[in-house]
C-alpha cells in the first residue's frame, strides 16, 4: 500500500510517519485485505491539530475520516478510531462486495461547479439571473447499487453521494436526512407529481 503523509504548515517527522503507517496498516488489515493507497494530512487550527485520512480500496470504494485534538498523535488516533468504527460497521458487506464484484467500481466523469453564494454577485442575462461560477472541477461518479452507495456515503463521511445506479444506469442520489435517516432520489419514471 502507498502512503502519503504530509502536513500543512507543520513538519511531519519520521516518528509520526512510522506511527501512522503501522497503526493504519493494522486497522485496514483487519477489515480490508486490498487497500491501494492512503493519504493522511495533518494541519493546525488555532490550538488544535487536525488529521484527515482518505483510504482508497481496490474495489473503488473510499474510506474517509477526520479528527482533531490538542496533540498531533491524539488527532491521528481519533481519526484512526473513526475509520475503524466505519470499517467495523461494514466489514461483512465490504468482504461480500469484494467477492461479488469481479472488477473495480466504474467511474464516469462529471463536471462539478462551485457557485457564488452571494446573490448580489449574480449576473443578469436575457433568460434570467444566473449565479457566477467561481470554480470548475472534475468529479467522478461511481456506478453502484443503492446499498453500496449508502455504504460509500457513510464510509466517506459525506452528507450525500451522486451515483449511477448499476441496475438501470440512471443517475441517483443518496443523502443523509435531517431526521437521521437516509434518503434516496431516483428520478427514473417518476412522471408528473401534482
TrEMBL record:
Subcellular localization: Cytoplasm
Entry keyword annotation includes Cytoplasm: yes
Keyword match Cytoplasm: yes
Keywords: Cytoplasm, Translation regulation
Gene3D superfamilies xref list: Ribosome hibernation promotion factor-like (3.30.160.100), Sigma 54 modulation/S30EA ribosomal protein, C-terminal domain (3.30.505.50)
Domain Sigma 54 modulation/S30EA ribosomal protein C-terminal, first and last residues per copy: 131-183
Alphabetical list of InterPro entries matching this protein: HPF/YfiA_ribosome-assoc, HPF_long/plastid, RHF-like, RHF/RaiA, Ribosom_S30AE_C, Ribosom_S30AE_C_sf
Cellular component per GO, a single term: cytosolic small ribosomal subunit
Family: Belongs to the HPF/YfiA ribosome-associated protein family. Long HPF subfamily.
Protein name as catalogued: Ribosome hibernation promoting factor
Amino acid at each position: 500500500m502507498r502512503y502519503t503523509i504530509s502536513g500543512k504548515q507543520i513538519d511531519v517527522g519520521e516518528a509520526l510517519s512510522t506511527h501512522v503507517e503501522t497503526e493504519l496498516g493494522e486497522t485496514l488489515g483487519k477489515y480490508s485485505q486490498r487497500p491501494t493507497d492512503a493519504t493522511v494530512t495533518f494541519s493546525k487550527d488555532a490550538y488544535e491539530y487536525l488529521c484527515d485520512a482518505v483510504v482508497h480500496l481496490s474495489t473503488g470504494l473510499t474510506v474517509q475520516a477526520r479528527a482533531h485534538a490538542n496533540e498531533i498523535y491524539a488527532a491521528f488516533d481519533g481519526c484512526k478510531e473513526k475509520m475503524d468504527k466505519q470499517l467495523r460497521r461494514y466489514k461483512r458487506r465490504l468482504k461480500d462486495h469484494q467477492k461479488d464484484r469481479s472488477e473495480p467500481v466504474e467511474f464516469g466523469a462529471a463536471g462539478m461547479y462551485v457557485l457564488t453564494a452571494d446573490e448580489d454577485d449574480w449576473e443578469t442575462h436575457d433568460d434570467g439571473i444566473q449565479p457566477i461560477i467561481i470554480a470548475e472541477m472534475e468529479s467522478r461518479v461511481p456506478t453502484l447499487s443503492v446499498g453500496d452507495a449508502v455504504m460509500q456515503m457513510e464510509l466517506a463521511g459525506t452528507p450525500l453521494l451522486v451515483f449511477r445506479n448499476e441496475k438501470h444506469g440512471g443517475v441517483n442520489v443518496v443523502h443523509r436526512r435531517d431526521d437521521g435517516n437516509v434518503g434516496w432520489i431516483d428520478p427514473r419514471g417518476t412522471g408528473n407529481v401534482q
